[in-house]
Amino acid sequence: MNLLLTREYRIGNELDRLAATVGDLLAAARPYLPVNGQLEVALYEALYNAVEHGNLGLSCAEKKQLIENGRYDEFIARRQRQIPYADRTVALLLQITEQEAVITITDQGAGFDWRERLAAGHDEASLLEVNGRGIRIMQSVFDEVRYNRTGNTVTLIKKRETA
Is the full-model pTM beyond 0.85? Predict the structure, then answer.
């Protein structure tokens, strides 16, 4: 397995800085992968989940309630300053070989029950919901979406088209 490209990132919990990280990663990957808007959105969703639900420990139910009450931004800003959340980071690793691109994202949160989430399935209406879209988007863009046992690491695999 010949490694063509590797990039490592360690990012904080600033949601407004994720787009710059995604842009940098996709610029590096562009010579090796067909980069498009879908790939960008899927990667952004994965990072957003890692920060929001992983590092900041925001449950889906809490997120929905905070958004409905107009308090989401206030909660996120407060949580970003609180210990232990303030010091957590997300590790992002991109590895591209001749066969595939592998993106591994690990947060420092408690993880989640991804088995339950995947077993629940999705319907078209779920794309309009506040929660659950990210996983569905990732599954539609990447060839494989894998989680570690704990649920705080997601591995996204995109097969490369060979000539």
Answer: yes
